[in-house]
Write a structure and sequence with these properties.
α1 crosses α4 and α2 packs across α4. The protein has a four-stranded parallel β-sheet, covered by helices on one side. The protein is of the alpha/beta class and 134 residues long. It has one domain: Response regulator (Rossmann fold), CATH 3.40.50.
Length: 134
């Protein structure tokens, strides 16, 4: 692993779970971890309920946009986390792959997205503790 760990969050549409996870990692770890997110079939825009749920905890993801998943993004990552969407990533030696099984916020209201957001935050906090041991 490089001096600064590099994490890639992957979800099919890159519009909800992966965007929230990336935002929490940036918010909580700052520049101590490089963060990216992408999807195999990116949506047109980030899920408005995800934007609202994150705004409630003081994190603005309204200007984020879904991005396409590339083999280069996977290969240059230390940790690749899929968000329970059944996405498959190219496999490269030396990359740690994880799958976080999370409910899909697509088409859900903010009330349904809040518990997903809170679960993502807890998992991101555990990831930070693992990647940046004190």
């Amino acid at each position: 692993m490089s001096t600064t760990p590099n994490v890639l969050f992957v979800c099919v549409h890159n519009a909800g779970r992966s965007q929230m996870a990336a935002a929490f990692l940036v918010y909580l770890a700052g520049d101590r971890i490089e963060v990216r997110s992408a999807g195999s079939a990116p949506a047109e825009s980030v899920n408005p309920a995800a934007v609202q749920a994150m705004a409630e905890v003081g994190i603005d993801i309204s200007r984020q946009s879904p991005k396409i998943l590339t083999p280069d993004a996977v290969e240059s990552s230390d940790v690749v986390i899929t968000m329970g969407c059944g996405d498959t990533c190219p496999v490269f030696p030396g990359v740690s792959y994880r799958d976080w099984t999370l409910d899909d916020p697509a088409g859900q209201g903010v009330d349904a997205v809040r518990p997903i957001r809170d679960e993502i935050r807890a998992r991101v906090e555990a990831l930070i503790a693992e990647l940046l041991p004190e």
